[in-house]
Write a structure and sequence with these properties.
Structural class: alpha/beta
Number of strands: 17
Number of domains: 2
Largest sheet: 8 strands, mixed
Distance between the termini: 60 Å
CATH class of the largest domain: Alpha Beta
Shape: elongated
Radius of gyration: 27 Å
Strand content: 15-25%
């Protein structure tokens, strides 16, 4: 091979490494942002990245684009390893034409999506783009559709993570929304369908970019973001951490790391975690942290629908999914947003073979006109659908209240759960004592000389019979009443048995989830 040939190749590779040039790289850094390649260097294990499509460029005939040809066309794609495990990645390069999405970008992303799906490895996208490339007209819009289709086909087959590093607007937001988890950098990213200027022109509403589509909005109000990191380096580290809980694809078991926490460890503090006052709050995360392997709990969507807690953890080194009511917020009652949050996380765990541990302390579904009009029936049914559909090992632990429909919905044995444990503080009943007494003993109360005293006596009797786990255990709805302190070893041993569980759903194209 001649020196000319080698020189040409090396010059093109060097041009691809420079992105949009030194000036644009400096501008990127001035905004507090890393370049695409700097981000990949943090994400991927050293010396493991293999790039594809580094020399691809857009069609020079596009309107006004003849003089703006950059190798790579504003995106870096390829393969690498994270903690020694293979992954596929793409990173949009804002220094090249603002990272604008082009037909060539689509071809490169689709190529890496196809290879990831065929190889059965996770796909991570680092998003930083000004939107569709206007000069390409409808071609850039059609290109989005190609990416969306592959997002859907890969869903539930390989893990897909979106890490938001900069702007993401218009149709571009649908690709991250179709992936499994969205991580946003708090300092540099935002997402919205229509920007502040369009909203001002159409509706007259005044809103800033941050208030419209910033990380705090999507973490606490819309639920679009699952995790928010302080900055870009932290967001990338979070993506690496999340992948450690997920298998490479849906044919693999939940990953295990070398056990480092004693499986028989017991925590006496759990015996006093639930207050003596049945209406007093406590933080269920204290139980999750104490029961799981030390420092293994990673909460997902912590600021959205905070009356429910979901996240990843480990038991004896094995990755698991954790779902819990949060009695410290709204007494742990289920509402529309909490139902959506729980149902989606169940399906994520089931898709990637993570056993599900559910901690139950729920007085029921949140009452109110707004909830009923908003479709709480439909949204609550999502939890039931997701639990019933899931075939992974499922274990429930009733820590306190399991009242009415929430008892059934929250991984009861009727939802095909494998084991149901309860703490001595558990209260399992059709409804609250006061409401039940007023229905059951309406006539007696009406005739009583002292209705208040009679009601108090009926309430006491009702509580004595139903507001404990022993009646449910007596009829087999609870497998075992356990001391809170022994919950960890009980769960470790149960999952050891259930690890080889095999359960199948009836053959069908798909069910109709009440979405």
């Amino acid at each position: 091979m001649s020196d000319n040939h080698l020189g040409t190749l090396r010059a093109l590779r060097e041009a691809a490494l420079r992105g949009g040039g030194a000036k644009r790289v400096d501008q990127q850094h001035a905004r507090g942002k890393l370049t695409a390649r700097e981000r990949l260097a943090l994400l991927i294990d050293a010396d493991s990245f293999q790039e594809l499509g580094a020399l691809a460029t857009h069609h020079s005939s596009d309107f006004g684009m003849d003089a703006q040809r950059f190798p790579g066309d504003g995106i870096v794609t390829g393969f690498g390893k994270i903690n020694g495990r293979r992954v596929a990645v793409f990173a949009q390069d804002f220094t090249v034409l603002g990272g604008s999405f082009s037909e060539v970008q689509s071809h490169k992303i689709c190529r890496i999506q196809d290879l990831a799906l065929e190889s059965g490895i996770p796909l991570i996208g680092l998003n930083d783009s000004g939107g569709a490339r206007i000069q390409e007209g409808v071609r850039s819009l059609a290109a989005y559709g190609e990416v969306f289709t592959r997002n859907v086909l890969a869903s539930g087959v390989i893990p897909q993570l979106s890490v938001m590093m900069g702007p993401c607007a218009g149709g571009a937001v649908y690709s991250p929304a179709l992936t499994d988890l969205v991580i946003m950098s708090a300092t540099t990213s935002y997402m919205f369908l229509t920007g502040p200027e369009v909203i001002r022109a159409v509706t007259g509403e005044e809103v800033s970019i941050a208030d419209l589509g910033g990380p705090l909005v999507h973490a606490a109000r819309s639920g679009v973001a699952h995790l928010v990191a302080v900055g870009e380096a932290e967001a990338i580290a979070m993506a690496r951490l999340v992948l450690s809980y997920l298998p490479q694809n849906n044919t693999e078991d939940a990953p295990q790391i070398a056990p480092y926490d004693a499986p028989n460890r017991m925590d006496e503090a759990l015996n006093t975690l639930v207050p003596g006052d049945e209406n007093a709050p406590y933080d269920i995360r204290d139980a999750i942290v104490a029961i799981g392997d030390y420092d293994s709990f990673l909460e997902v969507q912590p600021d959205y629908a905070a009356n429910a807690v979901v996240g990843f953890a480990r038991l004896d080194g094995y990755a698991i999914g954790v779902i819990a009511n949060q009695p410290a917020v709204m007494a742990g009652a289920l509402d529309i947003d909490a139902s959506d949050k729980i149902a989606r996380f169940i399906r994520l765990c089931d898709a990637f073979n993570l056993p599900i541990i559910t901690f139950v302390d729920c007085p029921g579904f949140l009452p109110g006109v707004a909830q009923e009009y908003g479709g709480v029936i439909r949204h609550g049914a999502k939890i039931i659908y997701a639990y019933c559909e899931a075939t992974v090992p499922k274990i429930s632990v009733v820590t306190r209240k399991a009242i009415g429909g929430s008892y059934v919905a929250m991984s009861s044995k009727q939802m095909r759960s494998d084991l149901a444990f309860a703490w001595p503080t558990a209260q399992i009943a059709v409804m609250g004592a006061e409401g039940a007494v007023r229905i059951l003993f309406r006539e007696q109360l009406a005739k009583a000389e002292d209705p208040a005293a009679a009601e108090a006596e009926f309430v006491r009797a009702y509580r004595e019979r139903f507001f404990n786990p022993y009646h449910a255990a007596d009829i087999g709805q609870i497998d075992e009443v356990i001391e809170p302190s022994e919950t960890r070893p009980r769960l470790v041993r149960a999952l050891e048995v259930l690890r080889t569980k095999v359960q199948h759903n009836p053959p069908k194209k798909h069910g109709l989830m009440p979405i």
